[in-house]
Amino acid sequence: MRRSGFTILELIAVIGIMAVIGTAVIGGFSGMMKGVARRNARDSVRRALNLARQEACVDGNDTYFYAVDVNCYAIVRRAGVVTSSDTGSRDVQYGDKLKIKGVSLGNGGKWIVDEFADLSNSTESFVVDETMDNADLIQTFKDYAGSMVFDMDDGVYADVAYPPYRDKNVDAWVFGVKNAGSSFNAGDEYGWVTHPIQSLPQGYVLKGTYNASTGEYKPKNGIYVHFNADGSHDTSSQNTITLERPENGETIVITIDSKGKIE
């Protein structure tokens, strides 16, 4: 009895057809994913810019979109100007009763002093009960962890270790930060990072962070968009944010007009 089946040529033909279809599917999927990444990169930055503009209008404070790394950005609300900073120990006192003596911020920590800004609103989310003992107060500080302050002159951020308090001895607002490095010096403008720092989809960078002398992408100070308190765009800052895919030079350009409209 003769059995029917496929010849070797037929099998080769089928395998070839399957390979062609598989290549087409994989290529199409890859192209689709690149398209999704492109839209996500563009939309994430557009949303951040719109959010910064909205916060400027709602809070009535200058608000910024800042590049904080080659592919990361932050929304920063301006707070004030550093009058002075120091790295020594300090007695910290909130109200009349809550005091911690000889607080040291450790290596890289700084006390930021601002004589002129009104930072009273900065402590609204920091609830302190004057009946607390020091242990409870320290736990409250731990709960406050995660807040960040941004040095707008140096383009770097630091973690807030002690939220602002009014130091009657120097008649100024004081707060403690850690991991400040060599930044947050007298004359530097600073602000609060109002939302968690965001990253672009993998493969994209903020153009302008490229270091031509080394051929590497590195953070570069000064890539920012400034929204005035009425939501308009301060044209002394960037009127475009360009995203780049280094592997092929593909770019996405987002523009901001003088009224703050984002295209």
SS strand fraction:
25-35%
Q: What's the number of helices?
A: 2
* pLDDT < 50 stretches: none
Main beta-sheet annotation: 10 strands, antiparallel
Q: What is the CA-atom radius of gyration, in angstroms?
A: 26 Å
Helical proportion, percent range = 10-25%
- Taken from the alpha-carbon principal axes, the silhouette is elongated
Distance between the ends: 75 Å
Tally of extended strands?
17
H-E string:
HEEEEEEHEEEEEEEEEEE
For the record, the count of structural domains works out to 2
- Overall mean pLDDT stands at 84
Structural class: alpha+beta
Task: Outline the structure in words.
24% of the residues lie in helices and 33% in strands. By secondary structure, the protein is α+β, with helices and mostly antiparallel strands. The chain folds into two domains: 25-60 and 200-255, no CATH class; 78-193, no CATH class. It is elongated and about 95 Å long. It starts with 7 loop residues before the first helix and ends in an 8-residue tail after the last strand.
